[in-house]
Design goal:
- The chain has 468 residues and is an alpha+beta fold.
- It has three domains: 92 residues, 2-Layer Sandwich (Uridine Diphospho-n-acetylenolpyruvylglucosamine Reductase, domain 2), CATH 3.30.43.10; 130 residues, 2-Layer Sandwich (Uridine Diphospho-n-acetylenolpyruvylglucosamine Reductase, domain 3); 207 residues, Vanillyl-alcohol Oxidase, Chain A, domain 3 (3-Layer(aba) Sandwich).
- It contains 14 helices and 17 strands.
- The strands form three sheets. Strands 10, 11, 12, 13, 14, 15, 16 and 17 form an eight-stranded antiparallel sheet that branches.
- Helix 8 runs antiparallel to helix 11.
- The protein is globular and about 70 Å long.
- The chain starts with 13 loop residues before the first helix and ends in a 16-residue tail after the last helix.
- Keywords: FAD, Flavoprotein, Oxidoreductase.
């Protein structure tokens, strides 16, 4: 069994690192080596990795060698592409960095993509757009495809009509704890295929994914920003408008307190504003007519909703693409009645003292609620809203920032759902397993874990423990 006390694990000896380096095409790094700090860096500047050794993999054989090394040393393994969601400092662990495994192959006829473990969504968006196709990407193009998809993948552009990104995975290649490279699909290893799609990184190192693309070359999308003092009016109008919209229309709400930084549009700097985001795959005329009632709610500070090529979808949410220091956490809501609107306004509205950079409410439904043809472990179907709080600031303000996010989520507890989106869990959050997946789904995941990772090597995450 992997030692629970990671702090007690000794350093990796130079001769052992040299033996691994001799087996791989990529790079092996110990603390103090040139390049170690670059490879352990993550997107969130308030978190860090301190692994005993880093294997920068270039191919599947490198991953297999690194996993075998970890087994021999009785060390846990953490897989890193960008580090947007780091759950553990990985002290004493083996970190497998995958960013060099960045091949992208587009099958225009079959409407599929095959990507390596280190590919970012920006890579897939650009490659697919050349043949008029689009993926179920997230709101930030700098996020890695693998981790996002294994956690479900909540696409704010196509998800309401197509479902979760995990629903459209055709096959994966994964190195399991025994060092075996497995081709996993619905026929070859159905239980592992079910668990990987939604169970995050609990079952091995995914080295490649194959998934569906969609014939969407353009969108009518963007955001409308309103004065923050009109938050209640905007929220009431938006929630009343949502039920009448087709699945081809995706929308979200956010309350924003953005800093006075050059990357922020000038009208939004150092002001409290609220915004509605839209992504619609129909015509410009239909989209414009559809959102006209919302445009009429209040005078807009800024309106960016327009026809756009799919390659511009990152502009809808306009999230940071360079590392920043932040704390974030999210929950699902089972409903959002009038009382919840009033509560949210009280918690983060114009008269609150909330310092949150973003309090975001995404409306789900549609295909997000439907089981795919090949079911998977995604746990959040049937829950109509995702609520996320993001506080930005240095680690010296850690407790204050965490408390600010907690104030939002705890305040909305009366409407909280009974499951969680694993991609929106905080790094140091350790909810009960049933709170993430629900008890029945968790028991099935734990049984798969017992088969493929009985010693819990892949545990530096929101962990599914092997069934006993």
């Amino acid at each position: 069994m992997i030692d629970d006390n990671y702090f007690a694990l000794p350093p990796v000896l130079p001769q052992d690192a040299a033996a691994l380096a001799a087996m791989v095409t990529g790079t092996v790094l110990l603390p103090g080596d040139v390049g170690y700090d670059d490879e352990r860096a993550v997107f969130n500047l308030n978190h860090e990795l301190l692994p005993a050794i880093i294997a920068v993999a270039e191919n599947c054989a490198d991953v297999q060698a690194a996993v075998a090394f970890a087994t021999g040393q009785h060390r846990p393994v953490l897989v890193k592409t960008t580090g947007h969601q780091v759950v553990n400092r990985a002290e004493g662990a083996v970190v497998i960095s995958t960013h060099r495994m960045n091949d992208v192959a587009i099958d225009a006829i079959g409407r599929t993509a095959r990507v390596g473990a280190g590919v970012l969504w920006s890579d897939v968006i650009e490659a697919a757009a050349k043949v008029g196709l689009a993926p179920l990407n997230g709101s930030n193009p700098t996020v890695g495809v693998s981790g996002y998809t294994l956690g479900g993948g909540l696409s704010p552009t196509l998800g309401r009509s197509q479902g979760y990104a995990a629903d459209h995975v055709h096959a994966l290649e994964v190195v399991t704890a025994d060092g075996v490279l497995r081709h996993v699909d619905a026929k070859s290893e159905p239980e592992l295929f079910w668990a990987l799609r939604g169970g995050k990184g609990n079952f091995g190192v995914v080295t490649a994914l194959e998934f569906a693309l969609f014939p969407v070359p353009r969108l009518y999308g963007g955001a409308i920003y309103f004065p923050g003092e009109r938050m209640a009016d905007v929220l009431r109008a938006w929630t009343a408008w949502l039920p009448g919209t087709p699945e081809t229309m995706i929308s979200s709400f956010a309350a924003l307190r953005l800093p006075a930084l050059p990357i922020i549009p000038e009208p939004l700097r150092d002001k409290f504003t609220v915004t509605l985001r839209f992504a619609y795959t129909g015509t410009v005329a239909d989209g414009s007519q559809m959102i006209a009632p919302l445009r009429a709610v209040a005078p807009a500070i800024l309106d960016t909703v327009a026809d756009m090529p799919y390659t511009d979808v990152a502009s809808i949410h306009n999230e940071p693409t360079e590392p920043v220091p932040y704390y974030e956490r999210g929950v699902m809501l089972r409903e959002f009645p009038a009382e919840a609107i009033d509560k949210l306004v009280k918690l983060v509205g114009p008269r609150s003292a909330s310092p949150l950079w973003i309090a975001e409410l995404r409306a789900l439904g549609g295909a997000w609620d439907r089981e795919p043809a090949v079911p998977n472990a995604v746990a959040t179907r049937g829950l109509p809203y995702s609520l996320l709080g993001v506080a930005v600031g240095p680690v010296s303000e850690e407790q204050y920032l965490k408390d600010s996010v907690a104030d939002l989520l705890d305040g909305m507890a009366p409407w909280r759902g009974d499951r969680r989106l694993v991609n929106n869990l905080a790094p140091d959050e350790a909810p009960d397993a049933a709170d993430i997946y629900g008890p029945e789904r968790y028991q099935r995941l734990a049984a798969v874990k017992r088969t493929y990772d009985p010693d819990n090597m892949f545990r530096l995450n929101h962990n599914v423990a092997p069934a006993s």
